[in-house]
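SEQUENCE, STRUCTURE TOKENS:
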Amino acid sequence: MTIQEFKAFAVKNLTNSQSPKLDAEVFLEFYLKLTKTQQLLHNNYEIDSQKLEELKIAVEKRAKGLPVAYITGHKEFYGYDFFVTPDVLIPKPDTEILVERAIDVILEKIQSRHGALLTVCDMCTGSGCIALSVIKTLIEDERVPAEELPKFTLADISEPALEIARKNANALLGNLGELVLSRVSFVRTNLFENIAHRFDIILTNPPYIPHTLVDELLKDGRSEPRLALDGDITISGERAFSLEGAAKNDGLEIIRNLLSQSREHLSPLGTILMETGEYNAKKAAALGERCGYKSLIHKDLEGQLRVVELN
């Protein structure tokens, strides 16, 4: 089978995908190490039988709903390559807004700290894409010298997720020097349960999707971890209910707990940057205001309410 024939085969079989041609091109690039331009130039190239089998298995998995990123084990985010598995959410472009704002806030606070190192927590870190993108950009773009880089704590309830974050930290920061790596630590914790100190900045992309919507999302076979999606779960991991006994379905239960705990873990004049859904961003901001914060909501690339900033 040639490259051109494989593309036709993939498009024919990926009827459930919104971008079957792109999926095929990504598979070819990953398994054959050919760019899209090289694929066009070698349209009639006969694919090795072993590689062809790998490609067909990838198409079969994609046809069942598994995302391309889980099949290849890689996803680009903020211009960087992240290792991902079904133990972590696949980084989404909308989260890049949080990264951009985090960089600005960190630079503003560094200027006012006069040499004292900032402390940053990336709560519900997952793959580590938020914190690691911030760190790599600050250092590689020479926004701050390594000796002024804040101390970052990457926290998550899932040990498998933390293993992915550690792997990404070593891959992305390993060439930036021991000092940079020494500023990054990892902690397994249920929100702030195992964290004793305060932070100047808390970054978080917590589970915020309503419970029933998670059910619908996972029907397509995407295999993303429910733990990282369902926002209607209590601290003990059970479905949240109101005082009247009705099941909560606003995606905000984890955020309620996170914000109430944050009062003891945010330094004076500290900032929280939190991703939410466009459908519950205003309510999340209101929860923050009830905890004594001033709120501001930033829009994502599509103009939807996305990142809640609390000061």
